[in-house]
Design a protein that fits this description.
chromatin regulator; 3 domains; Herpes Virus-1; 12 helices; mainly alpha; 712 residues; coiled coil
Amino acid sequence: MPSSKRGDIPSFEDRPSKRMKRSDTPLEELTDGGLLSQDDVVYYQKEAIYRLLNTIRHRNQRLRKEVKKMNGKYTILSKYYHIINNWWSEIIDNFKNFDLITKIENEDGSEFNQHLLISVPEMNDRTSGETKALTEELKEKREKLIALLQPILSLPVTNRDDKLLELEDSFTNLNAFKSNLEGENKMLKEKIEDLNQELDKYIKKVDVKKSKSLDRISDNLHDREELKEEEEGKKGNTNSSSSVDGNIEGESSLKEAQAVKYELEDLKVAFSSLKNEHKNVKEQLQKELTNISVLQKEISGLRSRLSNLSEDDLKGSPAYQSVITRNSELTAQLNQIKFNSSKIESQLYDMESNLTAHKKQLEDDAKSQIAANAAYITKLESDINRIRADRDKLRSENNILKAEKGKTELCDEYRQLNESLQKRLDELIVTSKIEMDPEDGSVDDIKEETPDKISLIRKNKLLIKELKQMEEAFTSIRKSFATKLSRYVESDAYINKLSVEKSRADEKYFQAMRAKDALTAQNKILKGSISKQADLIDVLRSNEKRLIEKLDVEKSLYSKLKEVESLYTNDLMYQKNASREAEIKLSSTKKEFDSLKTELFGKQEALGEKDKVISSLNSKNESNESKVHELEKLIAKYRSNSRSAEDDAIDQALLTMTKCQLCNKNFKNVTLKSCGHCFCSECIHNRLASRMRKCPSCNKQFSNYDLLSIHL
């Protein structure tokens, strides 16, 4: 195994901070043979880091190129997007203001109206050919748009619905086309991503092939088998083996130099062959371009001939005759449609008159019915009020009669009691007179009586006198009670009469309040109907004004349509004559057109095949040029040993990767066995001294026994 020295990835200990130069003396080297050492492992890790940085650098270069292209395209597209957006806004404003366009055309109809759309700004001399071509194309499109919009904006819009349907169909077609383009764009992006991945894989393969540490590992596997055989056969010949190793090293260095020389010669040969192929492809491309220019001239001649057909060409054309017959049929159909339209208009007018008459009759019937219903409702309301009043009156009388009936019954009972008492009193008086009359007894009997009996008789007389006095008092009291009772009955009857009158007055009051509420509700309804009628009157007046304005507009349109119809008839006659002449020309030139068309299709197919060949050759040419460019770069790199800015950036990135992430001043010289992260010994010992025994990157526990010294 030859001693391969690593000069492209030096150590970071003796480098300056800003500008680093390649050292003449090797700082690191791989071992010659035998088992792999710690230095070999470090060398392998650094080469792996370099390979990763190399792939990232290539990706960065590709992305920068794409970003640069996209920035240029974005500036151009944004500029033209603003121009086109302004065009659309001006088109919309022009379609909104038809009078403005007609005034401009009437003032100067012969000149080209440049005020419809904004002009395209002029480009500088520094702009690329692509942007100049885009500006020229925009100018041509602007002139075409003005030529299309100037006559359209001066005419009234006809067949709006058909045009809207056509626009909707075209919009759906554009949406489908857009979806197809999006799918193709997605597929192309996926292809580009696949190509970028393949390019990254190719770069990785090239870096792996150029890796010295991987060659050392593969040779180490082979050397192990050889060492086993040598240890079995040659254990004591150490001096001879050292001399043989020296010879092997010299031979391997010579072989390596010869291999580099052969590789350089192969690259030169490949470069010369690619140059020849490129020259041949350019010649073929020039030939194809000349053929394309000849075919384009022929196509332009055919187009000019088709655009300027003679009368003899059009005379024998059957298509022209069919066009004439079709034109006559269309005119007949147009006349029939006009007749039908006039007939339909008359029928529509009759139907409208009948409709208005029926509508008026229905309105009159509805109004009369509503008035009759209103009168009937008022009559019913008056009947209801009268019935309610009679009901209230009867209720009050019934209540009075019920109250008086109870009182009359009480009075009758009292009278019967009084009569029975009077009868009993009369009977007692009669019996007392009979029993106590002094005239009935004789004096002799009295004399014969005892003195006790005489005193008893005297007492009886006194009692009889008192009884008479009591009877007189009772009769007087009874008379006064009867008078008071009659007065009470009269006052009670008067109170009942007043309560009846009060209830009647209350009913009348409530009836008046209900009538008042009904009148207020009717008043509100009448006010609302009056306001609605006023609004309806205003609306009818405004509608009348609008109808008058529309009638004036229709009259003006009718007069204009009369003028347009006269112009149309004259134009139709002229077009008929022109169509006859064109049909005559078309009939004779159709055959020539068909033959030229077949020739054109054949030439277009041949041109398409040639375009495909040219595109394939162009792609091959571009790939060959890129390969040649890369090979030239490799040759220049092999010839010169000077460092580039990319190498300096890589060295700076490697320097940052080898510095400790905790202090950023010392190199990584200690690794942790528990997790594999690397730091400087000073930071690790400081953390151990402060009892912070967790990895700063992954928080895994470590101790003094997990430390392993390394060298980067």
